[in-house]
Structures are given as structure tokens and as C-alpha cells.
Amino acid sequence: MSAPLPAVSAVLRAYPRRWRERYLAEMRALLADREPGWGDLLDLARGALDARLHRLVATPAVLVAAMPRKEFIMPTPARPSYGVVASPPIGELSRRSFMRRMLGVGAGILALEFLGGTIAFLWPQFRSGLGAKFPIGTLPDIVAKQATFANGWPYAYAPARAFLINVPAAKELALGREASVPNPTADQLLALYRKCPHLGCQVPGLCDELKRFTCLCHGSTYNILGEKLFEGPASRGMDRFAVSIGDDGVVVIDTGQFTAGSLNRGPAALSFVDAAPYERKCR
Amino acid sequence: MGKDGPGGDLGRFAEPALLILVSLADGPKHGYAIMTDVDSFGATAIGPGTLYGALARLERRGLIEPLGPEDRRRPYRLTGAGSSALGDHLGEMSRLVQVGHARLRAANG
């Protein structure tokens, strides 16, 4: 069975250019005599691969030297002539090389933009956003802004997306008692990250009725220290940032130091039990 | 087969190369004539790709040379180096044949 002609031509095109210049005409003559079959086609394909892997064609100089002069006729493929092409004056760019150069410059600029964008993307954010340190003022400043902070009500600090909790006063508040602790120490302060650990909604402020936090999205409920209670799908308590008080008395929330909320579940796992029943959530 | 034999350095084309040299031993032939000739005496047929792979190698090593084209076909002929290389190699082979037959006879004898 003979192989289709287009397939044969395609395989012959797979030979390297120098090979084709030297051998193509005679190979075509041979194939015209033989009616190549599929086996021949495969053999030609292997030959093409071989010719590409090895430099098989002797250089013309060698060829010429090795041959009787008169008989040597190198088949030269006919090439269309476009006449004499005017070259640009010395020192001036031709249109073509100008376009090539501009293409290169454009590609270079594009590459630089990608590089710059990548570096900017990877550059850590030190000054703002999650990961930064937020000085939120001295305790008297905070109490001046929100007097109820001394009575245990959380102080919401928006830039850090955090609640600052005055722990001893907050516990009294959640137990239904009145207290005033205007000067808690650093280890009596707690910064709760307001992002609900369930799906990331912002946790709203304490509700008046239960003194608990209930996320508006799916109802996950936390006590005033951010510990997860019965209601809602969240798998852990609210996450916490490190809080410190500097020598100048300024309270600093370090959002780069992050403690995930406790995974422990159930009433027995709570460090603090407030006045409301475990199962209740804010309405 | 030594490095200097007609098959030396010819890799997969060693046997086709030998067949081509033998085919060209009685005069110049073009590609198709070599193929049909090899078909008539060789144990294995060679395809067109194999044939030209071997021809190119032999030409590069100066064992054969192309002549001017007749019609579109180009005949090739053995060079002096090609014919002496073929002679050497055939001598080597015939010694091998003699030894092999002798040993077979002795073993079966």
C-alpha cells in the first residue's frame, strides 16, 4: 500500500535545510520511481531525525574539493529576485532595524513592569494593615474617648479591626455587676480581632442584653473575652493580638503577633462563665 | 568491525553502508538502482531514509562521491579509498566466515 503524497512531502520537509538543498531533488526522483509505502515513510521520518541530530551533509567546500570539477552541478533552488535593495546611509537606522529595536525596548519595559509589580506585591506592609503595630493612645486617652471602657465595655479600634477589652471590668460587667477599673495593667488588657473565625465577617459590638458578641452573619456567639459559646458555626474562639503598654503609657496593639482562638469546645472549656445561659445568643 | 572499516563510525547505518559499497563495487548507480540492487542480493531491504542517511555518511568520509545528475537522478561511485576500505572489510569478513565454518564443523564433526 502506498503512502499518500502529502504525507511524503511533509516528511521530506522535516529534513534540515542544508540536507534538502543537497539531496532533496534526487530523493524525490527516487521516490517517484519507487512509489513509497508506509514503511518507507517511517524510514524517511527516522532519516529526517537522524539528519537533524547529526551534521551529515558535507560542507560545500569539501564537496567541491572531493569532486571532479566538470561534473559537479549543485542544484540551486530558484529564488525570486527583488532587485537591488537600497541600504540606508551609514550611521542611520533602517526602518526594519528601528522597528526591531523598538520591539526589544517594548519587551524590556514590559519585563521591568512585571518585575516591579511582583516585588511591590511581595513587599511586606510594615506601617498599616494587618501585621502593623498600632499605638492607640494612653489609658486616660481611651477613657476620655469612651468613659464606659473603665466599666468593662470593649473599646473598638477600627484601624486594627480590634476590640480592646479591659478584662477585670469586663468580667464584672458580664456578671451583671458594676465596676470601674480605669487603670488596668497590660496583662489585664485583651485585644480581640473583630474578624469572625467562621467566615470572616466583622463581629459587631457587645450586645446590651447578654454582654456577648454575636456575629451577624451566622450567629456565632462569644463571651466578652471572645471565647466561643454554644451558638453558631465558628470552630474556635475569636483570635487575639498581643497588647503592650509602652514606657510612655501608650497602649500598643501588635497585629503581627496573633494568637488563634481556643479550639476547645463546651462550657467546661471556658476560662470565664458569664451570667447568661450558655446556649443564649444576642438577638 | 574495526573503526577503519566501511561501517566504522556509521552507527545504525553500518550494515546499509556495507551493502551500498558492495552495490557500487561494479559501477556507479543512483539511489533507486542501489535500492533495487540491494534488494536482489542483500538479506535486508533498506528504506529511502536509511539509504540516504548512509549515502551522506559515506560521502562525508570520502568513500563514495557523487557524479553529475542524469535527468534528476544523481549517480554515486566508489572512490579509491572506498574501494580499498571495502576490500579490507570483505577480507576481514571472509576470515571471520572461514573461522566460523571451521569451528562449526569441528564442533559438529
Give a topology summary.
The complex is a heterodimer of chains A (about 280) and B (about 110).
Chain A: H1 5-13, H2 17-34, H3 38-53, H4 60-66, H5 95-122, E1 133-138, H6 139-145, E2 155-157, E3 162-166, H7 167-174, E4 189-193, E5 213-214, E6 221-222, E7 240-245, E8 250-259
Antiparallel strand pairs in A: 1-8, 2-3, 3-4, 4-7, 5-6, 7-8
Helix pairs in contact in A: 1-3
Chain B: H1 14-24, H2 31-41, H3 48-60, E1 64-66, E2 76-78, H4 80-108
Antiparallel strand pairs in B: 1-2
Helix pairs in contact in B: 1-2, 1-3
Helix content of chain A: 25-40%
Shape of chain A: elongated
Structural class of chain A: alpha+beta
> What is the CATH architecture term of the largest domain in chain A?
3-layer Sandwich
Number of helices of chain B: 4
For the largest interface in this structure, which chains are involved and how many residues does each contribute? A-B, 36 and 29 residues
Report on the architecture of this protein.
The complex is a heterodimer of chains A (283) and B (109). Chain A is α+β, with helices and mostly antiparallel strands and 283 residues long. Chain A is 33% helix and 14% strand. Chain A folds into two domains: 5-66; 133-269, 3-layer Sandwich (Rieske Iron-sulfur Protein). Chain A has helices spanning 5-13, 17-34, 38-53, 60-66, 95-122, 139-145, 167-174, and strands spanning 133-138, 155-157, 162-166, 189-193, 213-214, 221-222, 240-245, 250-259. In chain A, helix 1 runs parallel beside helix 3. Chain B is 59% helix and 6% strand. Chain B has a two-stranded antiparallel sheet. Chain B has a single domain (11-108), classed as Orthogonal Bundle (Arc Repressor Mutant, subunit A), CATH 1.10.10.10. The chains are: A alpha+beta (283), B mainly alpha (109). Chain A binds chain B through residues 19, 23, 25-31, 33-34, 36, 39-40, 42-48, 50-51, 56-58, 62-63, 66-68, 70-73, 75, and chain B through 12, 30-32, 35, 46-53, 55-57, 59-60, 62, 65-69, 71-74, 79.
